[in-house]
TrEMBL record:
<dbReference type="InterPro" id="IPR008719">
    <property type="entry name" value="N2O_reductase_NosL"/>
</dbReference>
<protein>
    <submittedName>
        <fullName>NosL family protein</fullName>
    </submittedName>
</protein>
<dbReference type="Pfam" id="PF05573">
    <property type="entry name" value="NosL"/>
</dbReference>
<dbReference type="InterPro" id="IPR006311">
    <property type="entry name" value="TAT_signal"/>
</dbReference>
Amino acid sequence: MTEHQRSSTSRSSWSRRGLLAGVGAGLSLAAAGCLGDESASITPVSLDGERACDECGMIIEDHPGPVGQVHFEDDEPEGGRPGQFCSSTCTYTYRFDAADAGRSPLATFLTDYSLVEQEVFEEGDDTMFSSHVESDAFSRTTDLTVVARSEVVGAMGPELIPFGEESDVDAFVEAYGGEPMPAEEVERSTLEAL
């Protein structure tokens, strides 16, 4: 498959499934609320403007690839807002460090490339996905599969690319390679292996 074909396939392979994903997310949240899960009411925020990554300091919306946010139990000591990040790797690194320091993450969100119309572009030898910082572009890590060690890189280089739909994971792996895994199973060793 040529780069042009791959790029064209990528753009057409993932159509917007916002309505179905939104209904599914709403049902999940409703079920969690009925079960007494205090984190069920937490929703993602937009990461637009001059927001800097809490892990590396880069301006989030200025860089390609998935972005993330972590909401903490201890009243989000990042100034009354969730932790905000320019990449999946920064999101996980910060969350691991915070947990090691005794903080309790209540909800972690990453860009869900099944919900957005992403652009695929080349920068030098790198293949990248567009960044999406709007609040409705995020899904909880409990609902995502990430693909590690693909040809697609993000703001910090090798990246975990998240999807909410298994068919999108399969199409992405076919086009760009990589190894899928549940987003909740990512560990420090996963990041080190990137």
